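User: Could you walk me through two proteins back to back? I'd like the raw sequence and the structure tokens for each, with a short line separating them so I can tell where one ends and the next begins.

Assistant: Of course. Protein one, sequence then structure:
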Amino acid sequence: MIAVPRWFALFIACLLPCIASVSIAGELPWSGARQLVVVTTSDWNSNQGTLQTFMKSDRGWQPAAAAIPITIGREGAAWGVGLHPMQAGLAKKEGDGRSPAGVFRIGNAFGYPASVHTALRYKGMSDSDYCIDVSTSPLYNRIVDARVVGKKAIEGSTEPMRRDIHAGGDHRYKLGFVIEHNNNGATALGSCIFAHIWKSPGEPTSGCTAMDESAMEALLAWLQPEENPIFVLLPQQEYARLRVEWNLPTLKGRQ
């Protein structure tokens, strides 16, 4: 048997965790993402935050545009159900007024116009489109057309997708996209989570992420499905804790 020098054994012992971490990082469900929408807040209970966009290049994550102000759920954030591993702490529940924290796929875009400038799959909403927030419904957390599923199927839902028609001219869903939280519709874990226009500057939401209309227009124009865009929402302390493990960008001046 060939004797191995002690220094070489120690070197290998130190290297193995690094190799393991690279392997784990490579297996992240969002490893193929080349666009990131990152929302951070000061803490779990803050309903104000900042949105930044990043594009992956040969040099890693690079900022794609200037940061913008956003609002989230009126009660802050709680861990959602997405692409990320399960985390200890407060979990998102239906009606809790919190936005889901974690890493999520970006789903379809929606709005009031028949068409908008976006490469995302888009559907213009009609007065019969609803997102079902009734947790006992088999259609929970899905956008459905009452003309297709029947009026009885939308009974009790508080999320008409044409809020301008059903909610006194509310323009919040004029432009937006789905954040795929609880995509399998597990009972009472939260539903109808979107990025959309805010009702007024700085006004929090019931669990979505809201912003100025011009910012939403720019975001929809920037997102490209072939780049596998991902949405991340985390309080700053959690972002700092998970940034390296989750292969997230460095946020200038914060992490």
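----
Protein two, same layout:
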Amino acid sequence: MLEKRIINILRDIVGKEYVSTEKTDRICYSYDATQQQFYPDVIVRPADAEQISLILKMANAENIPVYPRGAGSGFTGGSVPTQGGIALVLTRLDRILRIDQDNLIAEVEPGVITASLQKAVEEVGLFYPPDPASLKFSTIGGNVAECAGGPRCVKYGVTKDYVLGMQVVTPQGDVIRTGGETMKGVVGYDLTKLMVGSEGTLGVITKIVLKLLPKPEAKKTMLVMFDSIDGAARTVSNIIRGKIIPTTLEFMDATALECVRQNADLDIPESARAVLIIEVDGDRELLERQAARILEIAAPLGVVHTSIAASDEESEQLWQVRRSVSPSLRKVNPDKYNEDICVPRSKLPDMIRAIEAISNNLGIPIVNFGHAGDGNIHVNIMVDRSIDGHEEKAEIAIREIFAKTLELGGTMSGEHGVGTSKAPYIPMELDSATVVYMKAIKRALDPKNILNPGKIFLEDL
């Protein structure tokens, strides 16, 4: 535990009511969606960059680890306090500072909930596209730290494509600005892109300038079921080759469909072995032509059923098929390892077949769904930790899945980051020279390694 004098310094900086060493609070900030658990020594909830600067300066002087945290919804242990220290909770920085309709930008603080920002900009006819599955509770700061994606990224890109600039408190307590409010800017190194996706290891983000788009006039949702994953994957490739970029191209394989059949009241034909949920947006007249062309492309590729939404309500019903998967998973087995590999979209069938073989060889269920438009597969390895050998089998499955992913030209993480859970596998994807350069950046910005230590790189810096 931290010395009493340290706790008093923190109370002087942010106010007594925003510092806690109570066990119940320490438990609340000890885990994320991975269910890894490490207790912080103290929870601190600052109000602004000035307070964060003072906290980091003190932490540097005292060699105390600091763990920035938003909603704690990450899937790789990125915010868990592995070495105790200070849990720096940023939820008080929750203001949308401005929405500039002339320049199509918004300035926000990191604690703003993603869905709240989307709602606010849509009320004035604008659009913030990144849409991670956690958007109703994850924060913009966490999205930036992890470079979050989501279903719409096939057309609109991921979080990094919308961050123009930010205010950052460095590990040594300096307050700096990166980027700006313009679409162009090439003065000096691009520190904005360096900070995006750095998982809270290089700085604490306190303000973010985001690019916005005009809100699309309308959208159209289609659900297409196929008799094989190959037909679904070929449809995806042919749609893109046909110069159509849908808003979303979500897929579910046979394992995911089986979960839905068994655990949700939805009518899914037995012959269906894969599903695509395809959504297009834009001008109404264009949507009708695009939808017709997409169905024409899919028709000869093993389609067994098609549904087209005629309203927003019907669109929600189609999406319910996809949303039914995650709640169904715990009925397969009580514990899961959630990986988010990404392969070239043409390699999707090869990857799914490889995962099926791994599942069969090890005798553990693996359920797959995700973003077919960019080859991002959410691989859910379902185990029961109470059964001897299940955890070991899961670890073998993860390593074999990563190895096949890399063999196919993919990456071990499309949008979840590295954190602690993928750190042991870094050498599989990054060569030693690349890792040396990354560690050099971390040492230069954080020489005492006090900001989110133990993440991305397990070994000493």
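Residues 103 and 212 are 9 Å apart (CA to CA).

Let me know if you want the two compared in more detail.
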